[in-house]
Amino acid sequence: MFCASAYKNLTLVSGEAPKEPVVSKKSGHVYERRLIEQYIDEHGADPVTKEPLTTDDLLTLQSTPRTAFPRPPTHSSVPSLLGALQNEYDAMVFETLELRKQYDAVRQDLAHALYTNDASMRVIARLMKERDDAREALASVHASLGGASASGDVDMAHDEAPSAPGATLPDDVAAAIDATAARESGERRARIKRGAPAPYPTPATASSLHETQSTSALHSASSPGIQSLDVSANGTLLLTGGLDKSVLVLERATDKVLATLQGHTQAVTAVAFSGRSNAVAGPASSEAPLPPYAVSASADKTVRVWRHTGESYELLHVLDAQAEVTGVDVHPTDAYVGCASSDGAWALYALDSGACLLRVPPPTHASDDGAGFAYTSFAFHPDGQLAATGTADGAIRVWDVKLGRQSALFTGHAGAVHTLHFAPNGYLLAAASRDDAHAKIWDLRKLAVTRTVEAAPGIEQVRFDPTAQLLAIVGADVRVMGGKTLEPYFVSEPCTLPATSVQWSPVDGALLVAGLDRTVRTYLP
């Protein structure tokens, strides 16, 4: 055992009591093992006697009970104790301050998160309210509100509104129409808001549109002229109907005629591809398959359905419309085709079987609304639940497709409404007459004209682009309107012969224009 007096020798090395004491066999001095071993490694001698010393000369000391180490010199007086306590208190205060700062930061982050959540909930609530209002407004087109608008341009349907006596769609057809409407209604807002990536034309770039391609000498020169035009959803095929009674399928990239579809005995008045109703704007549409069906209508009172087979199209059905067909459109389900004829009837057919699913004939008695039923145009709403027919006396009748019942009547055009097109957003309907020098934009939510767009006299066709940002009007010239106010962004030179039909390619936004000069022109920014 070693005594406290042995600690006096330690001041020569560390000045503190050893935690692991050892004694030198040669000198008898007590050292801290860690320090004496370090000294021996460096000097090889005893730090006191300077005699040679090795670690083998050291003996470990055992103490029972273990030695209580003396208090550090800084704690050996009252002032030093007070100083140590003050230091500990200061450290605790600083630590408390840091904790308070962290608490305030967390509290601020929590408040910001709660504010963001509250703002998000408000935005969601507002969007849901707008959605519900839009749905109610659209539903109001289906049902009667009991009178005309203040402008006198719109009459809503009444119980005695024209309808097909006893006409009802099969349950599976009605279910398919409802399913398509539900899907498109949910996707339409996101698709329109998303828009299309560059270089797809926008109101900002529409002013730089210029002709980039021209495909001429189409159809026969003996009865020159293209009456109607359509483009496939993937932008690769063009479909044209001519005064020469034939329908052409062209490859857009090469201008090559892939098929000449013959059989009509009079001029082709309208053509349409399936798969076009709600095409996505932008390169994503290039992945769309080739249209399985092509449809053509004619003054020979028939609608012909052509089915894609390999590299061409072959005749599948000949549908008897009983009068000159003035308008045709493929339903958004891509399973049905609708058409209107000059005798005041419109009908819905199945593309695959050719079966007539619904036919709405003109009423047997004179209508109380003062508008006639000689139809000059036809179009489906993007949701597929509504259809519109333009009449020879300047009216537009909006129909509930499932019920075959008129939902609304728009009047005010100077002459026959021979062209109409629903905007992809589902809210607007563009219509025009050759007797007017302007097109009217009807708002289905307000059931009134929301905009009158000036154009050259002799308008042949109007067409919204897939993003609903641009409106093309063709006739004596080619015009592109854009923005919420539909201001003119592009006006071409006057056409040598009238342009009769216009389409937008969903893939690249190309403006495709056909006319009586037997030419299809492509415009891009």
The name CATH uses for the topology of the largest domain is Methylamine Dehydrogenase, Chain H
What is the number of helices?
3
Reading off the top of the CATH hierarchy, the class of the largest domain is best stated as Mainly Beta
* C-alpha end-to-end distance: 102 Å
CATH superfamily of the largest domain: YVTN repeat-like/Quinoprotein amine dehydrogenase
Estimated structural class: alpha+beta
Q: How many beta-strand segments?
A: 32
* Integer count of domains: 3
Principal-axes shape call: elongated
* Rg result: 43 Å
Helix content: 10-25%
**Strands of the biggest beta sheet: in what spatial order?**
4-21-20-19-18
Name the CATH architecture of the largest domain. 7 Propeller
Report the major sheet. Answer: 5 strands, antiparallel
Mean pLDDT: 85
Q: Point out poorly predicted stretches.
A: 1-12, 143-166
State which percent range the strand residues make up: 25-35%
EC number: 2.3.2.27
Family: Belongs to the WD repeat PRP19 family.
Function: Ubiquitin-protein ligase which is mainly involved pre-mRNA splicing and DNA repair. Required for pre-mRNA splicing as component of the spliceosome.
Protein name: Pre-mRNA-processing factor 19
